[in-house]
Design a protein that fits this description.
Shape: globular
CATH topology of the domain at 11-192: Growth Hormone, Chain: A
Number of helices: 23
Largest sheet: none
Structural class: mainly alpha
Length: 514
Amino acid sequence: MPADVAVLHSKNYRLLLVGVMLAAMMPLVDTTIANVAIPHMQSALGATPESVMWVLTSYIIAHAVAMPITGWLSDRIGSRQLLLLSVGLFVITSMLCGIARSLEEIVLFRALQGMFGAFIVPLGQTVILDTTRPSRHTQVMAVWSFGMVIGPILGPLAGGWLTENYDWRWVFYVNLPIGAATFAILLMTLPGHPQRRRRFDLTGFTLVGTFLASLQLLLDRGSHVDWFNAAECWIYLIICLSTLWMSVVHIATDKSPIFDRALFRDANFLVAFCVMVLIGVVIYSTAALFPPMLQGLLGYSALDTGLLLAPRGLGAMLALPIGQTMLRKGYDPRITVGMGFVCMIASLYYTTHWSMDVSRFEILWTGLVQGLGVSFVSLPVFMIAFTTLEPRLRTDGGGLLTLSRMVGSSVSISIAMAVYAHNLQVSHSDLAATINTSMLELVQTPLVRSIPEVGEVALRIADHEINRQAGMIAFLDDLRLVLWFTIASAPLILFIRRSPAPAVKPAATAAEAV
């Protein structure tokens, strides 16, 4: 039986845990923190609504393309050196984003920020597992999963508060003090694996990177060029499908592929990979849908929107000790995951019955229940994904899980926006068709006929209300789509294998060793 000893030793384990969590939170928060500030960036930089979206797109594309080489870079230059370098350069590029004076500059710096941020999360996960005794993996993964869930949820809240009280540039400047403290902590406490020679799979990296970039371009550009009515989207689709097929064949046949094939032979890891796609859909699609609905339709400010979305983080926080206790006491992880699916489905189902009169309390408690569900699902999934993986596969495995979550979020956000735009037009046409002559006669009173301007204002008010109602219907249709996807993903629970905890024994004392 293996000894209950961590793979790596840190001088100050608790301080290291704080530093790694702060490091991982920065790129996760930055995936959503800029969303609320986009309208302010547009006016400040003189950009169009279409071009300013590259501030978000460039970060996601660079993040996704760079992530597959995390494992190779970690072996090549060492995990300690790579994590310190990534945190330092992420902070520097955050500062450059804040001082950018043109759209081209901020898009370039956001791409660099996404590239360096891509290495932080999988490396942080590996460091936490390698410096923790196997008997305490459940507890430490509970803390880690909380950070993974709370990061994207905190983004809109922090972005709204900083934008309203300071300036949109502070959504980037906020990384400077946090990043400096994080870098100092990691410099003092972070251990590292020795370097290991490993062939760089240039073909696999090129194929996977091209697939991810073309997929993201298809999703982001599609809504702007009317999807497949434009030749541009067909080009992206052909490149995406071709490189996906060639990537699968290459990874399955190459002697040293970019991802070790042992990852795909682990059933629990494959289930975790699929569930991470679901987590990306639920967290990021709702994070993209709720701010415009709350601000544009219900009239909340950016700060109020962030506060109304905050209970998702509170729900995740409340669920972690419950899920951790259940796993530690030997409960089947499928029970915890099942509880999470029930919570997510229940909150989404109730949300699809909202109207323009939805109260603050309804928004708050549905977010709380959804946070509970996401946390109940993510904690066991993080645990089962690494139960049977060898330590050498943890960095690649962590990168793949993060990548799956990002792909799920990108696909779901693009589909949600496309469905929203289509259903908005359909709903507006259906509602406008109900306005008949008898209704218009109610507006055309003798007073209105004597003052034509009053009648025009009344008709504009009616059209504005039709737009609001059509927008609400379109948002609810998107939430129904997320609901059905969550329901369809629920059978994944059946494929989870209950892996027994590894048998461990205490480390040998000095006398026993002699």
